[in-house]
């Protein structure tokens, strides 16, 4: 056996709160890798509606999540649609209410606040009620502590916590991190990954390198 089918929406029998998101999310502006799951007691099916906020296709930004990520209940991704123009004296979005207030609005003042795509690498663990702001890149293997507010990019294999989230520690030394990023086991075919699970779970970097 080579693990669960990544196309199954609810991969754990009798435990419907966990779902593989690639099969559950159909939004054109969200990309999710195999085996990434969301855990919510109300069910994972409404992940896009509950957890990805202010995300409008006409803006053009994407939420990109890699493979083998674990996303806990209540995590939120704030997208660029939440941004307000900040170049004038007021940040109030007069233009969206119309009735003449839209006249003279310079779209470039709002576009200047667009921070691009939000990207999670592979094997990222996002804790309960973490908040990730627009345009953030979170590196492979990172851990986002519960209730963290992520306002800056997170390096690979870093653990961040707090508001604003700061690096508490790195999970491994620099050399091990470089080796893990070069191995990129999350991109392996599933049969190869399955054969080497003990090395992945047991932190046997030498065995992983031999398997490349």
From TrEMBL:
Single Gene Ontology MF annotation: acyltransferase activity
Keyword Transport: no
InterPro entries recorded: Hexapep, Hexapep_transf_CS, Trans_hexapeptide_repeat, Trimer_LpxA-like_sf
Species for this entry: Allomesorhizobium camelthorni
Pfam families: Hexapep
Keyword Transferase: yes
Family designation: Belongs to the transferase hexapeptide repeat family.
Entry superkingdom: Bacteria
Keywords per UniProt: Acyltransferase, Antibiotic resistance, Repeat, Transferase
Identification of the protein by name: CatB-related O-acetyltransferase
Biological process annotations from GO: response to antibiotic
PROSITE patterns tied to this protein: HEXAPEP_TRANSFERASES
């Amino acid at each position: 056996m080579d693990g669960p089918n990544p196309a199954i929406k609810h991969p754990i029998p009798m435990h419907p709160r966990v779902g593989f998101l690639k099969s559950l999310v159909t939004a054109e502006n969200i990309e999710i890798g195999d085996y990434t799951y969301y855990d919510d007691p109300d069910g994972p099916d409404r992940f896009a509606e509950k957890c990805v906020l202010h995300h409008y296709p006409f803006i053009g930004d994407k939420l990109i999540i890699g493979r083998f990520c674990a996303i806990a209940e209540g995590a939120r991704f704030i997208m660029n649609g939440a941004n307000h123009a900040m170049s004038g004296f007021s940040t109030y979005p007069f233009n969206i209410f119309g009735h003449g207030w839209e006249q003279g609005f310079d779209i470039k003042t709002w576009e200047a606040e667009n921070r691009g795509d939000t990207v999670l690498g592979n094997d990222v663990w996002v804790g309960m009620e973490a908040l990730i702001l627009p345009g953030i890149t979170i590196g492979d293997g990172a851990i986002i502590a519960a209730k963290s507010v992520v306002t800056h990019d997170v390096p690979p294999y870093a653990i961040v916590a707090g508001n604003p989230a700061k690096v508490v520690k790195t999970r491994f030394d620099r050399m091990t991190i470089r080796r893990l990023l070069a191995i990129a086991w999350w991109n392996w075919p599933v049969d190869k990954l399955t054969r080497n699970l003990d090395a992945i779970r047991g932190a046997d970097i030498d065995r992983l390198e031999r398997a490349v």
